[in-house]
Design goal:
single chain, 115 residues, alpha+beta, 2 domains, two-stranded antiparallel sheet, elongated, binds zinc ion
Length: 115
């Protein structure tokens, strides 16, 4: 269950947290950020320092469901067990052991078993 978020308050709090460290506090805003949600809207004039900090924060964000990319199909939907929802390939140590075993079995059957 997601906790309720107030995006306007979150942006305001971010600006308050970062703005005191702006090396040019009186400079003209470099960007205007508008946030409109069901509960209201706000426009934030952001200094170069703050917008750069916000961009770095956004770049650093990783979705909690991001468990990497499937080595088999390139899919991005790996479940909690690192199993690809798109092709079924298992990842992680267990997945690698199973994949190696499957390759060995495939090679053995391709070469034919000695009679
Ligand atoms: Zn896959």
């Amino acid at each position: 269950m997601n906790q309720p978020l107030d995006p306007i308050a979150v942006v305001a709090e971010f600006v308050e947290r970062v703005a005191p460290y702006d090396p040019e506090p009186g400079a003209v805003p470099a960007a205007l950020l508008g946030v409109r949600v069901a509960g209201g809207e706000a426009v934030f004039p952001l200094s170069d320092h703050v917008i750069r900090a916000m961009c770095r924060a956004l770049e650093a964000y990783r979705d909690p469901s991001d468990r990497g990319t499937c080595a088999e199909c390139g899919g991005r939907r790996l479940d909690d067990n690192l199993r690809c929802n798109d092709c079924g390939r298992l990842h992680g140590i267990l997945g690698e052991v199973i994949a190696q075993h499957a390759r060995r079995v495939a090679e053995e059957s391709a070469h034919g078993s000695p009679a």
